[in-house]
Amino acid sequence: MRRTGINLGERSPDNRRTAMNMWTTEEANNVLFKALAALSTVWAVLVALLIVTYASRAAQSWPKPPNRGHEPPVAPYWVPYFQHIFSFLWDPNGTYQSSKNKYPNTPYTLLMMGTKFHIFSSKTTVAHVFSRSRAFSFEPVLSSMMENGVNLPEVDRPMFQVTEGSNRFVASNHNIWLKYLTGKRLDDIMAVYMKNFHHVLEEHMDLQSREWISVDFHELMRRLIFEASLVTFFGTRIQYYWADIWEDWKLFNDATYFGVRSNWAYYLQPRAGRARERMLQAFEKWADIDPEEWVSEGVWNETWGIKMNHERELLGRDYGFSLRGRSCLHASFLFVIVTNAAPMATWFATCASNSPAALARYRKEASTLLFPGTSGSFHELGFDVIALKKNQYIQGLWKESLRLGSASAAARVVMEDCELEGYKLKKGSVILLPVQLMHFDESVFPEAKSLLPERWMVKDDQDEAEMERQRLQNQSLRSFGGGTGLCSGRFVAEQEIINVVSTMLLLFEIEFDVGWKEFKLNPRSIGVMSPAKPVTARLRRRIYES
Ligand code: HEM
Ligand SMILES: *[C@@H]1O[C@H](CO)[C@@H](O)[C@H](O)[C@H]1NC(C)=O
Ligand SMILES: *[C@@H]1O[C@H](CO)[C@@H](O)[C@H](O)[C@H]1NC(C)=O
Ligand SMILES: *[C@@H]1O[C@H](CO)[C@@H](O)[C@H](O)[C@H]1NC(C)=O
């Protein structure tokens, strides 16, 4: 019988040693052999388990015809218990697309740790789901993001739960967003925003120099958007309570891809967890004030930020939120205003510069919309923003950038057993509407992978067929979600990014290190995708003509 190094009692006397002795080479080889044998057995069992799982899932995963009382078919997966979760988190787009190839004409289901996520992507179903906010509820999704992403305290969680089919706090909060983030107030806020943007730009760039400088372009845009947003929405005061504001923000924001799904992300990445804690402590100080102190003629006070956030603070107090709970409300708002706008600014600028001719066209269109009196050496550009947004080329480019750069997937919880597209859905399962499946639908967007602003541009002599084509395109562009969850900041985003990018492209010559064709986006995103790798660009102050 062979001995193992562990089984000391079986040693023969001639070979006796204490456990401290080195093993002989032969023994060591034996042990190694056994260990390898054991490992390969474990490995074989694992592989067999994966194969058996996949095979048994594949056998049950054939596309099923509708109207037979079935649930949508579950796409095959390799790993029991976790099911699709790893492939979904690693490459959501790839996971949706490859399953869609298997089920080209029907919905299908991804399973993640026992929860069913039914994937739908037909435009009519998407519109149907968005318009039925009671049957397909957004609130549980919001509530889970508040719990995971900003660790909302237990005591405040009921505020986000639906009772008797509605939620008064969430509805009132929504009304405040609507009131401030549309119409005249929005224009006033955006005027403040652009003023702040120019201050921030002055701080980070030498606007007098005409030398070429090399920058990490996404890092630059991210920082400009973050700082301009922070001081516009929360005033200068927050900076005094939050020392490493920029570093902390990046740590927190980078962790949210996993973090909005599971609070574990912040324990597994303790630096991000500590950064989040410092942010929440800063917002506690920001919120812990005498409400009478906020005074302003208009919509903004430099110290306090925009009036909207003051109103949200009062609303939180009215509903009996804890101080930490209110801090979570403010931090989550900071998150939604920056997290997608920053990568969108980078991406929109990249799309606008996709070729020298495209960039020249952008500059030409934008420079005609500068207010008269903007002089060539002065850097605070004033655009007629309304006209800038309406400009056919710029608007077409904006929509096309949204189409190609979005990776959001609206999620809605099924509140009662029901049927959709002829398939049964059970209460408690989740409907997932991935925009990439809609945005790359060749029947709506021919040459879907190409950037074609023209497809959105309205011609003067447009016929009925063309109108219909554009109507379908409009319906399929879902970067901002829809229904109850529809992004309240979509007008802010459009105005902010078009204005900021027009400013940057008129103020600077820009040369990217990688060409348009090699530019890759990171599929792991909860909204707009960031570049997959750092984007080096050379910038030089240009003297524009107006
Ligand atoms: C290009 C930039 C942006 C994109 C693509 C985007 C996208 C989204 C999406 C997909 C949702 C969830 C919708 C759903 O599940 O149906 C959302 C929610 C939201 N967004 Fe945006 N967003 C952007 C910028 C902004 C900005 C700049 C603001 C604020 C000024 C903002 C404020 C909000 C708010 C408050 C919500 C939550 C709505 C609610 O809870 O009822 N977003 N956004
Ligand atoms: C902003 O608020 C501060 C503190 O209450 C106040 O002293 C200041 O006058 C306000 N600024 C404006 C422009 O109203
Ligand atoms: C598409 O949406 C835009 C607004 O983004 C609107 O101005 C246009 O009229 C819509 N086109 C059609 C054909 O519905
Ligand atoms: C998403 O998937 C499509 C189809 O497989 C692919 O062409 C596209 O490049 C992917 N996008 C990203 C950002 O990975």
Automatic annotation (TrEMBL):
Protein keywords: Heme, Iron, Membrane, Metal-binding, Transmembrane, Transmembrane helix
InterPro entries on file: CYP450_sterol_14alpha_dmase, Cyt_P450, Cyt_P450_E_grp-IV, Cyt_P450_sf
Ranges annotated as spanning the membrane: 31-55
Annotated binding of heme, by residue: C487
Sequence similarity: Belongs to the cytochrome P450 family.
Organism name: Acrodontium crateriforme
Gene3D superfamilies: Cytochrome P450
Cofactor(s) recorded in Swiss-Prot or TrEMBL: heme
GO molecular function, one term: steroid hydroxylase activity
Keyword Transmembrane helix: yes
Protein name per the record: Cytochrome P450
Positions in coiled-coil regions: none
